[in-house]
TrEMBL record:
The lineage of its organism: Bacteria, Pseudomonadati, Bacteroidota, Cytophagia, Cytophagales. This is LysM peptidoglycan-binding domain-containing protein. InterPro entries: LysM, LysM_dom_sf, RlpA-like_sf. Residues 185-206, 218-232 have a biased composition (Basic and acidic residues). Residues 208-217 have a biased composition (Pro residues). It comes from the Bacteria.
């Protein structure tokens, strides 16, 4: 990448090239030094040849694709000639210094950009906002917001600063701690040598005594039943299965109705209970299901289902004509994390 040097660099070789202060600066490419010259009004390639004491071919070689005619305000690379070895070293040193400073500036800019991106993923909670409303606003899930902010519940307060983007979270994510490696136990060679030196003489091992044999008493054969007689076997009865306990938040299927119970199923739209974002419970509003009943709500689109507890009646208004159930934000997140409403089936058992 060409490196442009300002007028302070060209002043190093002003005496050798009195025309350099009129140029844009200098550039080092492929080990060669060039003057960067901006074409002024009325200038031609021949005028550059006279100005810089070079040739047209040298200028064309330094500018591949350059036409015979140049235009006003065009920047042309011109080989720097008549430079002493000392001047070339001074220019090269200045170029390296400028390159280091340029790299430092780029690193500072990258760090500043990273900080800006991290700060752009921070939201300060305003009055009335909930975890669900913030997740919907920034296009993320409630689980992600909880993870990024180490929240143990959905309760948030006004003025609280929350991370609402994965990029901002990764900037703040602490570096993984290095895993401690257990030291490897190596045998001490000196100890082994000394141990061997003390035991130079071979030892004669005594043969091991044969194991003692204990006579085994004769086993008594159990009396066999007479021919035609068979022991009576008790009929095995299957163990009674315990009834499954269903709790709000479970996702199991609806039990089979038994006894005097019957199953009721409805199909319609499901929506979220407003201002329920700070609740961690799986709750619902329904028109007719008895309060306290557990009902199974299933999303027809993704087949996700969850048990919720009825805590109140669904208002009988025109707005809720096609709505059969409203669930809390926690339950809504499990059933439909992306949509604001969905087609659902509600099932429950009644006596």
């Amino acid at each position: 990448m060409p490196l442009l040097l300002a007028g302070w660099l060209t002043s190093i070789i002003t005496q050798a090239h009195p025309v350099l202060p009129d140029s844009l600066g200098m550039e080092k490419k492929d080990g060669k030094l060039y003057v960067l010259h901006r074409i002024e009004q009325g200038q031609t390639l021949y005028s550059l040849v006279r100005k810089y004491n070079t040739t047209i071919q040298a200028i064309k070689d330094a500018n591949p694709g350059l036409a015979d005619g140049v235009r006003y305000d065009q920047v042309v690379r011109v080989p720097a000639s008549n430079l002493s070895r000392k001047e070339e070293k001074a220019v090269t040193k200045a170029i390296k210094k400028e390159e280091k400073e340029s790299l430092k500036r780029e690193e500072r800019e990258v760090k500043q950009e990273t900080v800006r991106e991290a700060n752009s993923g921070i939201h300060q909670v305003e009055p009335g906002q909930t975890l669900y409303s913030l997740a919907s606003r920034y296009g993320v899930s409630m689980d992600e917001v909880r993870k990024w902010n180490n929240l143990s519940s959905d309760h948030i307060v006004s003025g609280q600063a929350l991370i609402v983007s994965e990029k901002a979270w990764r900037v703040r994510e602490p570096l993984a701690k290095p895993v401690a490696v257990a030291p490897t136990h190596r045998s001490d060679s000196s100890t082994e040598v000394s141990r061997t030196s003390r035991n130079d003489s071979p030892k004669t091992e005594r043969p091991a005594a044969p194991p003692r044999t204990v006579p085994t008493p004769p086993r008594e054969e159990p009396s066999r039943p007479a021919e035609g007689e068979r022991p009576a076997t008790e009929p095995s009865s299957p163990a009674p299965s315990e009834p499954r306990i269903i709790r709000p938040g479970d996702s199991g299927p609806l039990p089979n109705p038994g006894g005097n119970t019957r199953r009721i199923s409805e199909i319609g739209m499901a929506e979220i209970i407003e201002n329920s974002g700070n609740s961690n419970k799986y709750l619902a509003l329904h028109r007719s299901a008895p309060i306290g009943t557990l009902v199974l709500v299933r999303n027809d689109m993704n087949q996700q289902s969850i048990w919720v507890k009825i805590i109140g009646r669904l208002p009988d208004t025109s707005v809720n004509d096609k709505v059969i159930v409203k669930v809390s934000a926690r339950a809504f997140e499990k059933l439909s994390p992306a949509d604001r409403r969905f087609r659902a089936e509600v099932s429950y058992l009644v006596p």
